[in-house]
From TrEMBL:
Entry keywords, A to Z: Lyase
Record protein name field: Enoyl-CoA hydratase
Species of provenance: Kineobactrum sediminis
Phylogenetic placement of the source organism: Bacteria, Pseudomonadati, Pseudomonadota, Gammaproteobacteria, Cellvibrionales
Domain of life, per lineage: Bacteria
EC number, as in UniProt: 4.2.1.17
Length: 255
């Protein structure tokens, strides 16, 4: 396997981004963050790409920030993108986390920056920053309470204790639990199902779901309509209806 900190593979409109520092349990350093940020830029700028998967090499996802690099003054933060090149500005297109082993600290914050999470039954999740005198400032304290019940997020933040895949699924943190060693395989199936759909409709659906969390009841229908109008008058909308009538697969153009 290459010694590059981030590996990118593209096939059938699906990009697989692999964190590739297994000797450090895929801890995030500056080079890894730059690699992830570049992959996310490519995902959104390349019209041939429909969806991406973020995973880790060596049987684990990401153990967080590289503390050795941190004490030497190196920070895995990309301006405009955030920790690991992802947490503050995820891509416009769907992103799936495929998790084996540990997703801890910044690793969990990378995972919750993805739209969907597939986890192996051996996966462990946590934001143990407080155990090192730090705080989960890359999303653990502000994004996690929006994805699971706030009291459970509070417990994870204050104790720093880990939870397993079963607990994570029960609290709604992850989508699917699969046998150890098959997280990427299951994520690829999920990605293929997404890639088969209209790209404009998929991207807009993601945008509405994420942005509507901040909309009031009074404005949500208007704001939604402003975004989905372009979908309903798109070439893809006509193609989708035509393909259905002709009993064939649609030929999406993304416009």
């Amino acid at each position: 396997m290459s010694d590059e900190p981030v590996l990118v593979e593209i096939k059938d409109g699906i990009m697989v981004v692999t964190l590739n520092r297994p000797q450090a349990k895929n801890a995030a350093n500056r080079a890894l963050a730059e690699g992830v940020a570049a992959a996310m830029d490519e995902l959104d700028s390349n019209d041939d790409l429909r969806v991406a998967i973020l995973t880790g090499a060596g049987g684990t996802f990401c153990s967080g920030m590289d503390l050795k690099a941190f004490v030497s003054g190196e920070v895995p933060h990309i301006e405009g993108r955030g920790f690991g090149g992802l947490t503050e500005r995820p891509p416009r297109k769907p992103l799936i986390a495929a998790i084996e082993g540990y997703a801890l600290a910044g690793g969990l914050e990378l995972a919750i920056s993805c739209d969907l999470i597939v986890a192996a039954d051996n996966a462990k999740f946590g934001i143990p920053e407080v155990k090192r005198g730090l705080a989960a400032a890359a999303g653990g304290l502000v994004k996690l309470p929006r994805q699971i019940p706030p009291r459970l997020a509070m417990e994870m933040a204050l104790t720093g204790d880990f939870i397993d895949a079963g607990q994570a699924q029960a609290m709604g943190l992850i989508n699917r639990v699969v046998p150890q060693g098959t997280a990427l395989e299951e994520a690829l199936k999920l990605a293929a199902a997404i890639a088969a759909n209209g790209p404009l409709a998929v991207a807009t659906s993601k945008q509405v779901i994420l942005e509507s969390a901040d909309w009031s009841r009074e404005e949500m229908w208007q704001k939604q309509q402003e975004l989905v109008n372009a979908v309903f008058v798109s070439e893809d909308a006509i193609e989708g209806a035509t393909a259905f009538a002709q009993k064939r697969a649609p030929n999406w153009k993304g416009r």
